[in-house]
Amino acid sequence: MHPFHSNLKLKSSGRFLLLSLLVLLSTSCGENKQASGDCNYEITETLAEVIDLRPHSDGDGRIAIYLDFKASILALEDQELGDLKDIRIDHEFLTRNNIQLNTKYEVTVSELIKGDCKTKLTVAFDHGFE
Question: What is the 3-class SS of 37-77, one letter each residue?
Answer without folding.
Answer: ECCEEEEEEEEEEEEEEEECCCCCCCEEEEEEECCCHHHHC
